[in-house]
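Thread: quick sanity check before group meeting

JM: Hey all, I'm pulling together slides for Thursday and realized we never actually wrote out the predicted structure for the chain we discussed last week. Dropping the sequence here so it's in one place. If anyone has concerns about the input, flag it before I start.
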Amino acid sequence: MSIFSNLLEDCIEIFMDDFTVYGDDFDQGLHSLNRVLERCRQKDLVLNFEKCHFMVTEGIVLGHIVSSRGIEVDLAKIAVIARLPYPTNQKEIRAFLGHAGFYRQFIKDFEKIAQPLARLLQNEVEFEFSDACKAAFQFLKDRLISSPIIRAPDWNHPFEAQKKYDVTEKEMISVVFAFEKFRPYLLGSKVIVYTDHATIKYLLAKKESKPRLIRGDNEEAIPDAFPEEHLCLIESSPECRWINQAEGVDQGNHRSKGQNTRKEPWFADMANYLVTGELPRRDEITRAQKLKLKSDSRYFYWDDPYLWKWGQIKEAYEFCKKCPRCQLTGGISTRDEMPQNPIIVCEIFDVWGMDFMGPFPKSEGNLYILVAVDYVSKWIEAKATRTCESREVAKFLKSNIFTRYGVPRAIISDQGTHFVNKTIEALMRKYGVNHRLSTPYHPQSNGQAEVSNREIKAILEKTVNPTRKDWSRRLEDALWAYRTAFKMSIGMSPYRLELEKLRLDAYDSAMWYKEKTKMWHDKNLRRKELKVGQKVLLFQSMLKLMPGKLRSMWIGPYTIVAVRANGAIEL
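JM (edit): ok, ran it. Output follows.
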């Protein structure tokens, strides 16, 4: 490909060790062939005459018939596909999709049509060649037999520039643009491109690639000799002028003994000493001044073209810290969290937390687990469900919670549509239950339900078989293991707490455990004193899970309207 790099997409197309020379008419084709054969002669490239076909109007290229009409499907290959019977196993389906996928450009919406067949290639899916699969199989065969002809575009009409590039091409184009932009500064210099894109590193090391990624044009050679330099003096103000005494350059700042033609800035001697390591002459400053200059140089730092004092670095940090744009960058850590406010409940079965787990591998038609946990006793109720809809939630509350443990005061859940809808709202209003919703993207608001979900899932992982399709039958055993296990927060198991005389001890244990947890959590937090009227930024928790490049995770600023007793802030 490198031999014909300047002829690609002009009069020749190359694939592996085969190439095709083309032209709009006979004379142009003959001219293109002459250019290619001349290049072969120059590079001593030998061609096999028996495999060469000259001046043809139609030919087979990679299983396609290419002619002046356009690109067509090779009927000889399609005839084999048309006679195929219905597949009987995954291997035959994979072979059919492989052959048909070779001509997918001729079939519109190929992926949608082949979806029933592709589903049978998934693991843990029973092979059943349904009517939908038969229809898709026959439809693809009919489309291949009567496939359209793909014609080349008419280049006499205007076209829009291509806008869709993949990530690799965009980053390669940015490198090319940077080299063209800074070409006068890069001539004769060694340039190193630093990148963490593995594909770009591969393409740069690869000798053959698409002309779109590796350009082969040699518009102007870079000379080997370093170009002549011209030194220029740029002045923005008299204070920013560079003072050079080591060289004999007249900048209008020469000192003469006993008089100065122009007053130099106070940092001139310090800057010169930090850069060159040379002190002023004896006739300019005294020995004591030299010692002081050396001593003071420890507190200054030269960063061309600026002179910094170490105390100014802290001032610069404070200045940047107050910059509105700088405050919108960066993330958040655990030290920036708000202090814990544990949920203290006195009576058993007064407050329940609910959540859905799943989807899991299908087990007896079930995909989800609906979990409810009591905040005092840690008693858990769970049910395997086929869907995660509101009717499953309403049925579970009536049969598993209200009829067994009485109507609770409050139920805590997330803001999913299976919990926030008219059906659940009417049920809560009917029984007088306060429905509380957790903060979006903040699972700590319903922490007890999340902890119970994690423990139930851990038990099921250890008890299910390798196919993981019997978890619905193991769910009752997992609930028994959870209910009879010792809970540190209440000092006993949820099963023992069913006895009335132990509930007070459990409440004391829960209070002690939550106080210890709050103290351990809050001791490393950054203390923030928020007052009414202050302006603050709000962190978008959603972007912590789904961040975007060059996108700020903060919004605002907002004004604080009220500060609640529990630590909540109203903006």
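AS: nice. The radius of gyration is 38 Å. The chain is about 35% helix and 15% strand.
JM: adding both to the slides.
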